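hiii so um. not sure if this is the right channel but i have a protein structure encoded as tokens and i wanna go backwards to a sequence. like what aa goes where. can anyone help
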């Protein structure tokens, strides 16, 4: 599993690049209190797709500063 700094660096590296580069973001990223999983990167100009995934039984409450 990758860490948040690896995600930050990847986002900087691909900023402004064509869509294909964003597929490199697929994977799991550990943020300490939660894990971000990117398993699908949507093509531009397509209708939004619902997201989801496993979470804690209490519904998972993100810190206010995150939302």
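sure thing!! here u go:
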């Amino acid at each position: 599993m990758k860490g948040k700094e690896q995600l930050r660096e990847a986002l900087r590296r691909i900023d402004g690049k064509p869509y294909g580069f964003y597929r490199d973001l697929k994977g799991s990223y550990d943020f300490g209190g939660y894990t971000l999983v990117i398993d699908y990167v949507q093509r531009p100009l397509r209708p939004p797709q619902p997201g989801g995934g496993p979470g804690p039984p209490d519904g998972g409450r993100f810190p206010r500063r995150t939302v």
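oh and The helical segments are 4-14, 19-22.
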